[in-house]
Amino acid sequence: MVRTRVPLFALYVLWACGSSGDPIDSGSGPAPAPTTTTSSGADSGLPPADGGQTSDSGANGTDSDGDGLSDALEEKIATDYLPLVSVDASDKCPTRGILVRVSPHPTEAGRITVWAIVLYDEDCGANGHPGDDETFGFVVDPKKPAPDGVLAMRAISHQGTVCEHTTTCGRCDGMTPCDTTMGRQVVYPSKDKHGNYVDKDTCDSSFICDSGGCSLNPAAATPPHVNAGEPMKHLVDDLTKQGFITMANGWQQPTLMNYDPWMAGKFGEAGDVSKDLVDETFVIDTTKCQ
Description:
The protein is α+β, with helices and mostly antiparallel strands.
């Protein structure tokens, strides 16, 4: 076996980045090159022009978390507009699910902000640990069909560590267009470490913190998702009892069972999901988006 010496600085950085069941995804043959979102779609057959935010909540169906958006609209946004989370086909610990919070944009009427926290059973990169939480956010215009209705996305890899990188893409003036494949925007998690990026080149250049880089995997399985609700009206308080983090779904880490995402505390040995769900960094200004 050939052994290489790793500089002490690199070892320190790898250590710092470590704090932050579906089978391994696989594709057949090389992945097609990503495209970028440049076209604009026509409005047709979608939710009301106000995004469901009318004074008559009954007209829009049940609103279980009291944010002005009906449950049906929130589920549509979380399902139809969710980007592809392009987990590498050879990732060693791909078991995951997505916790979402779907809310009216706080300053832009008719637009919707989505927090998406990708939860993993483990981080199995350098200095791996049980549990992993990596967040991205996106803003939706529900009058436009996907993918054009996704106006902008932001990902922060290894948030709160020396390995943190923020990447943003979208349809707004001054933004780099998002990569798309098969009609969906793409979020790139780094191999084994799971740091989220919306720019693949930035991930690939983070060779100390994310030595496995990122890849486009259009065959990546869509993991289950669950709606967390709002800070003042939760929809979940036990991710095991509510059928998300379970052994039947491939989860193995005992410290993750019965996790309450709204209660302050680490997710395994990773970050605090209750803070991820209210992080205003993911509320993107889309006033200059078409």
